[in-house]
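Deliverable D2.4 — example input (structure tokens):
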């Protein structure tokens, strides 16, 4: 359970990126953070990841305040998270498979386990045939799928994806959204920011931000499928 309690954020003195934002997200929900560019969507995701702190208010995860975590506890929080942030590219000096293995190596898994799981993660995104390729040889859509495989290889409880369909054509965007929905069906909480309104109908929950404030929020019972 993730809870924002009266969260405001000012990066500079008097310009608010978020203003008195409150909402909660239950385990296993698929939530779209919607709203135009500059609305504060990335800021919300960064706060959940502990990368930005609120100026006032609290961000809670499972009843614990994320902003009060000591820096030594942040790595444990991050292990629960699969982060797909903008501008976090793949490492170009190694193969696709090696990129996806990296998060597992960092937490001390064996090379053999890392390789097996990384390959399986690539299979989930249907990009396993590029395992040995250099990221440089992939299209934008393929790179994004590899980035998602890298984010999910450690089986996170929560996936945070910032504009995962930006710059993708419709076909690749549908692959990415369907992959995220498949994770949600297997119990993972997915929080996806998007200014792309065509995907809003895919969510069971939409939180709409405008100029740093929540202006709308709705929940639907049925999650339709994309084609
Ligand atoms: P979105 O993801 O909806 O485009 P952001 O959360 O990135 O919105 O940005 C919200 C507001 O905060 C914008 O006005 C943006 O310029 C500002 N902002 C974001 N990050 C920073 C930063 N590191 N320093 C100063 N201002 C920032
Ligand atoms: P798509 O958006 O359908 O993935 P692209 O036309 O960008 O389309 O790529 C088609 C195929 O060509 C992909 O499998 C990709 O890996 C490969 N490809 C794209 N750019 C290069 C490149 N510079 N060198 C080698 N292969 C490439």
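Example output (designed residues):
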């Amino acid at each position: 359970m993730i809870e924002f309690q009266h969260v405001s954020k000012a990066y500079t003195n008097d310009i608010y990126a978020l203003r008195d934002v409150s909402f909660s997200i239950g385990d296993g929900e698929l939530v779209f953070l919607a709203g135009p560019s500059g609305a504060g969507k990335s800021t919300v995701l960064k706060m959940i990841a502990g990368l930005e702190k609120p100026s006032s208010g609290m961000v809670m995860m499972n009843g614990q305040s994320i902003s009060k975590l000591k820096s030594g506890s942040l790595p444990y929080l991050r292990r629960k998270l699969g982060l797909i942030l903008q501008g976090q590219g793949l490492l170009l000096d190694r193969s696709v498979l090696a990129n996806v293995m990296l998060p597992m190596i960092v937490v001390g898994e064996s090379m053999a386990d890392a390789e097996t799981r990384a390959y399986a993660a690539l299979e989930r995104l249907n990009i396993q045939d590029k395992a040995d390729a250099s990221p440089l040889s992939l299209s934008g859509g393929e790179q994004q799928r590899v980035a998602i495989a890298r984010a999910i290889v450690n089986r996170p409880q929560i996936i945070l994806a910032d504009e995962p369909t930006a710059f993708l054509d419709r076909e690749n965007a549908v692959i990415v959204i369907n992959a995220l929905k498949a994770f949600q069906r297997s119990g993972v909480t997915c929080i996806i920011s998007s200014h792309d309104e065509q995907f809003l109908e895919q969510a069971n929950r939409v939180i709409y931000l405008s100029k740093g404030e929540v202006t709308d929020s709705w929940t639907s019972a049925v999650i339709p499928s994309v084609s």
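The CA atoms of residues 180 and 190 lie 7 Å apart.
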